[in-house]
Amino acid sequence: MQLTATTAKTVLTLKQRPHIPLEAEVLTPDRLAFKTRDEIAALPLVLGKRQVRVDDYFDVEGDGSHELEIHGDVGRVKWIGRGMTRGRIVIRGNAGMHLGAFMSGGAIEVDGNASDWVGGEMRGGLIRVTGNAGGQIGAAYRGSMSGMRDGTILIGGTAGLEVGMRMKRGIIAIRGKVKDFAGLQMKGGTIVLMSGAEIRTGAWMVRGTIISLAPLRLLPTFAFTSAYDPTFLNLYSKCLAPYGFALPRAGKEGIYRRYMGDSAVPGKGELLVWQPNSP
Amino acid sequence: MGGKVTCTLGEVKNRADLVIYWGGNPAECHPRHFTKYALMPKGKFVPNGRKDRTMILVDIRETPSAKAADIFLQIKPTKDFEMITVLRAIIKEQPVDPAIVAEIGLSLEQLRDLADRMKKAKFGVMFFGMGLSMTRGKHMNSAALLTLAAELNAFTKFVAMPMRGHGNVTGGDVIMRWMTGYPFGVNLARGYPRFNPGEFSTIDMLIRGDCDAALILGADPGATMPQPAIDHLARVPTITLDPKVTHTSRISRVHITTAVTGISAPGTAYRMDEIPLPLRPALKSPYPTDEEVLRRIRQKIACKPLQLPPTVPMMTDAE
Amino acid sequence: MRGNSILRIVGGRVYDPANGVDGVVRDLCICDGKIVADVEAGRTIDATGMVVFPGGVDVHTHVAGAALNFARAMIPEDHRRNLAFVRDRIRHGGIGGSTPTTYITGYLYAGQGYTTVNEAAVPILTARHTHEELRDTPIIDKSTCVLMANNEIVLDLLEAGEYERAKEVVGWSIWAAKAYGVKAVNPGGVTAWKWGKDVKGFREPVPGYSKVTPADIVSSLAKIVDELRLPHAVHLHCNNLGAPGNVATTLETMKALEGSRAHLAHLQYHAYGGDDWTNFRSESVRIAEEFNRNPNLTTDAGAVLFGNTVTITADGPWQHLLHKLTGRKWGNIDVENETGCGVVPYVYKEKNLVNAVQWAVGLELLLLIDDPWRIYLTTDHPNGAAFWRYPEIIRLLMDLDFRREQIRKLAPAALNRIFLPELNRCYTLYEIAIITSAGPARALGLANKGNLGVGADADVAVFNNDKDAAKMFSYPRYVIKGGEIVIEEGEIRNTVEGKGLLVRPHYDPSVEDFIRPLFEKHYTMSFDNYPVELERVEHAEVRPCN
Ligand SMILES: [Zn+2]
């Protein structure tokens, strides 16, 4: 018999905010899709050193499906969407650490803030956060050779340290300002900073592209190469526009200044900094 | 990329002809460092001691250690990472932007001279303190210095070493590694060790309120940690083991007085270069040792119903 | 410590090469931690259809101490990639992978039927640390080798022609480190590395010295070890490890060792031809032929398996080169006046020609060296692969079809650089029992190990007789250590504590008057804190030198 998931969605509503972090890597469409409501209710979560059940912390509605909706402030619930390959998770509230880490497909949407390690070492798929996010977005876990290898992460608000650390491919776009070390040791892929970053952007980058629409404080190990009208930006514009990330084209309004670095490595990463024409 | 290239302090004593202190004030914080290991001693290959060595101090202010330095490089606060990154580029003869270099507070010439001295040294060593590792950039500042030292080995012998605090911090780190595979920031809640500084390191956990009890051993976080972390220690049941009443004791539910390790309790202390030194107690203490207290706590816990870790499958990183 | 269980293992096919027993069905009786002729009462284990081996003995491994512990902190990604060990009623939790944590090391060794290991590289200065880790390594018995071939006090004495005094210093050092044997790593090369250099020729002076050469160090230490009557020969990691064309150095080293006993560690890393990485090739045939002619030598394979690992060796210059070749992260610690250590994570890849040659050479040596009593199964853990992968090598040695299948996975260009496809020898169970137990025990001079004769230590492994040797040796049915059942049905049942094996060679105690002032001049700690106290070694057993 071929099992098929129901088309209805699975809805989890937080009953009580855990007093210490709750680990919930089981909350992915892959793991829930073919389970009944009761089976989902009985799935294990880890609260500190104790094993608890999903229904200890969540009201469960509906059988398993490819669409999981979570209501409530799950800012203390870690690892939601870990390793997911398909389906969709919608979180109405804040999300905890490691959201969508190692995911390779599907989509996660957060209507709220997210914590550190959003999309840590992800391989594909889409994560979209309307609010702010923490640090290490799409980053490599400590000691790993590479961070995200593909996929898209979109943050509506600000973000923390080490965004895209050691990322290899994929796109991270952040509307608000980000903290230090965006694109640290980046190996490829693209980071779009709509409001710029604090300091040390692109530190030790090897390859890849960081686009900033606000001026950046550069490291001394980046060199200006040219004013630039990168045609490949069209592609990004097209793919980001539906989410409200519009990249200006070089022309009447301004130009992109291109810098190469980090010469400490030495690397061939590029920083494209938008410079509006003075009126 | 990265790595850590270091040595024991005797190597410094016997060989180092270029000694750089970075973001530390050994003259006041590690007074024996100059005389015993790094600067004054006559070594096997530096027979004239101080005369055979060049000492450079890099710091944001002129501390008493500057008097001992041949060259004092005063840089602007929070420019360490930039300076080290520029040095990495210079040793590889890569271009840097002189205008931005100036923000470091040193001229490009000064940095070139420093890079040149590093390359020409027979055996160079960089000791770094909290002025580097605890200021903006933190672990990346330390990583930068360790990387620079590693890269200098393409030209000469070069090592780097943190100037760690007192109280056998190194010993804790060493034992954590053989017990758990990780030096610090370890979580054992799921029955096996997991590591993620920032997530599992003490200050971060306390500030977020991620724990519901605390056991404090050989430290006084009540005096050193940020206020929100201290507030959480006061909120949860905190047990402190210490020979004396500390700031932490005052906010603890329980304080247990223990014998002073090294004076009345035996054991091993690990020096900052990880050399194990035996501690031979000279005095008898009326108080139990930390080890004894912990063993007795464990025995009591063992009498309770056994609580095994969750049976949830382990999270391993996929390739 | 000593088990008081009484056991009778009945019906198993016993392989006990130390006593010439080759697959004979017989009962094995155990009492008071020893093999005995007969027992009256006690528990009976029905081993009908199973295979009974003496507990495994690892002659060369790196499981504890400053260098390995340094490596642990460097590779969190490896810890996360491998299955960890969850704490339970009996076991501590910990990490497996390339550098298992101490408790897990004990469980994993016992979990494949090994009961004795030799930690092959201990500096005197950090020996106390090594012994602290070994205390936390349960079940197995442990011996250690102290690093001597770059010890500057010894080298200075050899330079000055003071051989006799050098011998006294070595004797003193073994006891100071509470070691069992003497290890020589890249003689002279690590000292040179302290200046960022390596030794050039085997018969050229070590940088910083005018007379003493690697050859002098090798032959002197071999002679010293023999004259001190240590149970284990000098344990030698030859110069030029890993380098293309190092076959010449290895052959010269064998010549320099004539007239002395010696154990050549991880021979695989020393049996290469070619002038550079582009024409790198196997020279296992020449090495094996020469080795076969020299009965004074023993060796271990240092075999390589494909996959992730971390390389750790006192060979600092080699590690720096490896870091430059691979671009992987690099750790290095130089230990004052004594030695150094380098750490580089590494992946051996089937399609990489150099790695394919290395993989083949390890197996070739095991197949070409004709006396299994002189070559032992090792991977130079964790350098060639983690020790818990030994069963995979056993399968490659026993199963020709499987071996051919693996050879087919290599890049075709590798095939004309190796000899493996032409070798048809297959190991028997009897020979496996030799290379994993009886042989290394004999090489270590541990007559009571690797031996199921009456009076020997009751360290026994019982395996299913499975066609798939890898499976068979990965999951012993029973492991008995010192007479206690520690593994039953593949599960850890009991975590006994192991012994620390060491020797106290004869030396003139007045040598301390010579060492003390030198120590005070060149070291940075109090001389009285230098030697490790005997009570620091858990269940110390001082073995005789004769
Ligand atoms: Zn080795």
Radius of gyration of chain C: 22 Å
Unreliable stretches of chain C (pLDDT < 50, length at least 5) are none
First-residue to last-residue Cα separation of chain A: 68 Å
Number of helices of chain A: 4
Percent range for β-strand residues of chain C: 15-25%
Fraction of residues in H or I helices of chain A: under 10%
Question: What would the principal axes of the Cα set say about the shape of chain C?
Answer: globular
CATH topology type of chain C: TIM Barrel
The description of the largest β-sheet of chain C is: 10 strands, parallel
Write down the secondary-structure element order of chain A: EEHHEEHEEEEEEEEEEEHEE
How many beta-strand elements of chain A? 17
Q: Which percent bin holds the helix content of chain C?
A: 25-40%
Mean pLDDT of chain A: 94
What top-tier CATH class of chain C fits best? Alpha Beta
Q: Please state how the strands of the largest beta sheet of chain A are arranged side by side.
A: 5-1-6-8-9-10-11-12-13-14-17-16-15
Subunit organisation of the chains: heterotrimer
Low-pLDDT segments, ≥5 res of chain A? none
Please state the average pLDDT score of chain C. Answer: 94
* Overall geometry of chain A: elongated
What's the short version?
With 279 residues, chain A is mostly beta strands.
Tell me about this structure.
The complex is a heterotrimer of chains A (279), B (319) and C (546). Chain A has 279 residues and is mainly β. Chain A has a domain at 116-276. In chain A, 8% of the residues lie in helices and 28% in strands. Chain A has four helices and 17 strands. Chain A has helices spanning 29-32, 37-41, 54-57, 233-240; strands at residues 10-14, 22-23, 44-47, 50-53, 58-61, 67-71, 77-78, 88-92, 107-111, 126-129, 152-155, 171-174, 190-193, 209-212, 223-228, 254-261, 269-276. In chain A, the strands form two sheets. Chain A has a 13-stranded mixed β-sheet with strand order 5-1-6-8-9-10-11-12-13-14-17-16-15. In chain A, strands 4-3-2-7 form a four-stranded mixed β-sheet. In chain A, strand 3 and strand 4 (50-53) form a beta hairpin. Chain B folds into two domains: 9-162, Dimethylsulfoxide Reductase, domain 2 (3-Layer(aba) Sandwich); 169-302, 3-Layer(aba) Sandwich (Rossmann fold), CATH 3.40.50.740. In chain B, 36% of the residues lie in helices and 18% in strands. In chain B, strands 4-3-2-5-6 form a five-stranded parallel β-sheet. In chain B, helix 4 crosses helix 6 (108-120) and helix 4 packs parallel to helix 8. The mean pLDDT of chain B is 93. Chain C has one domain: TIM Barrel. The two termini of chain C are 26 Å apart. At the B-C interface, strand 1, helix 1, helix 9 and strand 13 of B face helix 1, helix 2, helix 4, helix 11 and strand 18 of C.
